[in-house]
Amino acid sequence: MKFHAIIEARMNSSRLPGKILKKINNKPAIEILINRLSKTPSLDNIYIATTINKTDDQLIKYLENKKIEYFRGSEDNVLERVVKTAQKFKVKNIVSITGDCPLIDPNLVEQCIQVYKTHSVDIVGNALLRSFPDGMDTQIFSTKILKDSFERSFHKKHFEHTTLYIRNNPKRYSSINIHAPYNYFWPNLGLTLDEQDDLKLIRLIYSRLVKINKNFTCLDIIEYLKKNKSLLNVNNKIKRTKVNIKF
Q1: Does residue 222 carry a pLDDT above 80?
Q2: Which sign does the torsion angle of CA 62, 66, 70, 76 carry?
Q3: Rounded mean pLDDT, 32-54
Q4: Which residues of 195-217 are buried (b: 16+ CB within 10 A; e: fewer)?
């Protein structure tokens, strides 16, 4: 069973334009994401699902220079874009990652893959019900299931998010949500690259931890921030999606 990552990435972000090429320790955020994701043992390849917009020409230039394969599709219809990316590269099992997660932990990605491999379900994720920090989000599903959801989708919102239709129809699609263990549990911690203050925090975290361990983990980030709580003030005013945890 092979798994390929598809990263949704575009330059035209309303809150932080060009965020995926913003420098973190002199490297574009997308490069850090790809490098960290590539450490996932069960991952065969990584593809970028971007848009046909002129604003993404700069991203394409970077990808071609780095010999990273990509597909260009609709900006508004993200679901279709990911389906077509998977079809172009003959992907059977998709590891879905968004481009705003440069601190993704490959160990957590691998955990999702292993759960998917050993359970007969349509989708496995660690943020279907959030318990890990925001920015560690991983979803695993087959191209067959995603294509099925695309053909059944009917609302604009379904097309704006890769798995919204799947998640909104639990009677049709089976799922497993991986809940964070106690030492990883921090659902309100924002580690996504959404705004300028996020960039500041991610730069601080990355520049510090990469000196200690270039393959630092989500747990390393959590432990570092618990010891340096003042850093949480950097981006704690940013409004995130409301977290509703059920036990």
Answers
A1: yes
A2: negative
A3: 98
A4: bebbbebbbbbbeebeeeeeebb
- Confidence (pTM): 0.94
Is the separation of the CB atoms in 223 and 184 below 8 Å?
Answer: no
CA separation for the pair 117, 5 (Å, rounded)? 15
Q: State the average pLDDT over residues 122-141.
A: 97
Q: What is the pLDDT of residue 247?
A: 23
- Kindly state the percentage of the chain with pLDDT values over 70: 97
**Structure-token match 């361990």, residue found:** 213
